[in-house]
Amino acid sequence: MAQNIILVFVHLYFLEQLHVYLNQNTCLIFVLFFPQSNEVPNSSLCEHEGLKRSVRFLKDEGLELDTLITDRHRQNNKWIKENLDGTNHFYDIWHVAKGTGKKLDALAKVKDCDIVGKWKQSITNHMYWSAGCTPDNNADMIVAKWESVIQHVQNIHTNHQNALFQSCLHDPLEDDEREIKWLNPSIIYYAYSN
């Protein structure tokens, strides 16, 4: 029986935070070849060279890579598109959530948008929930759940636009239970127009 090979290429300190659910036909491999900075022209190329060495190692061992999980390093993305045709490439959620958090921090600094900063943790938690609590990693459902956060933060919990996920799953919320005020639609519009 053929196994799916998944290469998780992340920094060592992220491994303890990584939770991967596997089935019996999946082989998860952590390959971490990180060259010394004196082996490459500059230190920023260490990660890229490490990825190339890791993939080469798997190929030399006769293993076919099915899925690759990396951060959003642009040089790696380009190399993967050019050299790993047919390999599923995903970004690790920690880096995506970190990038989203930075964008929320920037928006919170805009005049009259400071309330967004109070929503940052809830929004990034929602991202983790969308990706981590979706059976079979159904990409369309993950996107539908993620998009629902726009309505949720405005106190709209039913009749969401995406047919795959039309309402929040939480119990009804009472206004006096909320520590954070709901977002005004004008803030949402500002965020998307800039």
Describe this structure in words.
By secondary structure, this protein is of the alpha/beta class. It has 2 domains: 4-91; 93-193, no CATH class. It is built from 6 helices and 4 strands; from the N terminus they run ββαβαβαααα. It has a 4-stranded parallel β-sheet with strand order 2-1-3-4. β3, α2 (74-83) and β4 (88-91) form a beta-alpha-beta unit. The longest helix has 18 residues, at 115-132. The chain starts with a strand and ends with a helix.
- Across the major sheet, the strand order is 2-1-3-4
Main sheet: strands, sense, barrel: 4 strands, parallel
Query: What is the count of distinct domains?
Result: 2
> Which word captures the global form?
elongated
Secondary structure topology:
Layout: E1 4-8, E2 26-29, H1 46-60, E3 65-70, H2 74-83, E4 88-91, H3 93-108, H4 115-132, H5 139-152, H6 185-193
Parallel strand pairs: 1-2, 1-3, 3-4
Helix pairs in contact: 3-4, 4-5
